[in-house]
Amino acid sequence: MVLGAGGVVGHAFHAAVLSVLAEETGFDSGRADLIIGTSAGSIVASMLRSGITPADLSAAILGGPLSPRAQNLYSRARARGWRPGRLPEQSGGGGFRRSMLPGFESPGMLVDAFLRPWRLRPGAVLAGLLPRGRVPTNMITDWLAPVFGDGWPEAVPGRELWVCAVALSNGRRVVFGHPDGPPAPLSEAVAASCAIPGFFAPVEIEGRSYVDGGVHSVTNADLMAERDLDLVIVSAPMAAAKPLGSSLDMAGRRLARVALGREVSALRRRGIKALVFQPTPEDRAVMGFNAMDAGRRQAVAGQARESARRLLGRPDVAERLEVLRGAP
User: Fold this and answer.
1) What is the pLDDT of residue 254?
2) Which end of the chain has the lower number of beta carbons within 10 A, N or C?
3) Are strands 208-212 and 160-167 parallel, antiparallel or unpaired?
4) Any idea what DSSP says for residue 101?
């Protein structure tokens, strides 16, 4: 399961996709062998691994009964001041002021970008040039930390959770939870994955600063090629399904779609089937241009459920759904 970046609106899109998948196939995405989360997707991924079901994700947005597990987790989060989609106030007053200092920790990153531009994604270079954000990420850690403490979800054989971020020191992707990734509490790893450059403050872990994993890729689906898998499901709120149209945000969505296409092609070359959910024109009309607009959550979730159900009803998707129906 690949859950991409997309802010508060993307969270609602994920909830819609995963809940419809569960309704149509009986598959609980929290049981996936490997879940890769980037930015907003890392929050949803951690919720799934904590025992919150796709039905809970949808009910929390659209209204409806929550499981006892979800009721307990949401209650604990609200007791710490968490509210869905609410941004924290900057400590010290003054609104969302930003530092005028660039994000680069090391001048070597600039040198590397000029001498070996093929080694760094354009987003990583841009992230380093933007002023450091000032908005704290405690909106994430405040409710994840009590759930997972200093660790990760209880280990289940064959079920992994990887969280993608980017190190400001060199602009490279870092995958927390990966066997070769650096150690970090899950709450801090997710906060790092969500630290949008220029808005949220970079997250420091073991002396290194990290920002949003979407700087490298809004999906990071290529990482799935490391595993021998039957099916990879991708939920990509920042990409776009055809017809593409010409909205103001379409340039960014086209880039995300192209990058995702390359990642999925690499999976298919290895014989791994893929099922990809991208916002349709109807979805995009409801999503708007502000990914952090919490007021659109219900409308996005409702519309995306309709689109997801239409996609799952297509004859060419039937074979891939059989993999889910037979999953343990």
Assistant:
1) 94
2) C
3) antiparallel
4) S
What is the C-alpha to C-alpha distance for residues 6 and 218, in angstroms, rounded to an integer? 8
Selection from 132, 151, 327 nearest residue 211 by Cα: 132
Please tell me the pTM assigned to this model: 0.88
Tokens of 213: 């994993």
Three-point CA angle 75, 65, 298, nearest 5°: 85
* Residue given tokens 């995958």 in the structure block: 175
**Do residues 274 and 321 touch, judged by C-beta distance below 8 A?**
no
The greatest distance separating any two alpha carbons of the chain, rounded to the nearest whole angstrom, comes to: 56
DSSP assignment of 284-326, as one string? Answer: HHHH-S-TT-GGGHHHHHHHHHHHHHHHHTSGGGHHHHHHHHT
**For residues 131 and 186, which has the higher predicted lDDT (pLDDT)?**
186
Cα pseudo-dihedral 55, 178, 10, 241, rounded to 10:
-100
Q: Please report, to the nearest 10 degrees, the dihedral formed by the alpha carbons of residues 75, 152, 87, 36 taken in order.
A: -120
- Render pLDDT for 31-61 as a digit per residue (tens, 0 to 9): 999 999 999 999 999 999 988 999 999 999 9
Report pLDDT digits (tens) over 208-255: 999 999 999 999 999 999 999 999 999 999 999 999 888 888 999 999
Do residues 196 and 211 touch, judged by C-beta distance below 8 A? yes
Specify whether the CB–CB gap between 144 and 186 falls below 8 A. Answer: yes
- Lowest mean pLDDT across 109-118, 177-186, 249-258: 109-118
Local confidence band at 96 (pLDDT 50, 70, 90 cut-offs) = very low
